[in-house]
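User: Here's a chain of 125 residues. Predict its fold as tokens.
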Amino acid sequence: MEDCVFCNIKKTKKFIIENKWAFAVKDSYPVTKGHTLIISKRHESDFFNLPEEEKTEALKLVVKMKERLLLKDANIDGFNIGINIGRASGQTVPHVHIHIIPRRRGDCKDPTGGVRGVIPEKQAY
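Assistant: Prediction complete.
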């Protein structure tokens, strides 16, 4: 798609790793050091609409990127992996992308509930 920032990203960013169906780049607005995006090469807004092969290959890059991040930073203690699908979920770029967010002890006051924090009052349980 001509006006999609992720379809045009090759012009502005260097890929960290890639395969036939997806690529990894540093997030432009990182939540933590090392925050990375795995982005589908084909324009599609909804992860669930990707063919199985494309989903699988994108998830393989998630694993490879996790391994790379751990090799570069021994202080990483965990990860949040997230996919926003639709405006109600907070998706701002309507192109499939998976967030890989490295976590370190002490990077927030209380990480209990993890991704449940997308609705703050539901995070602690």
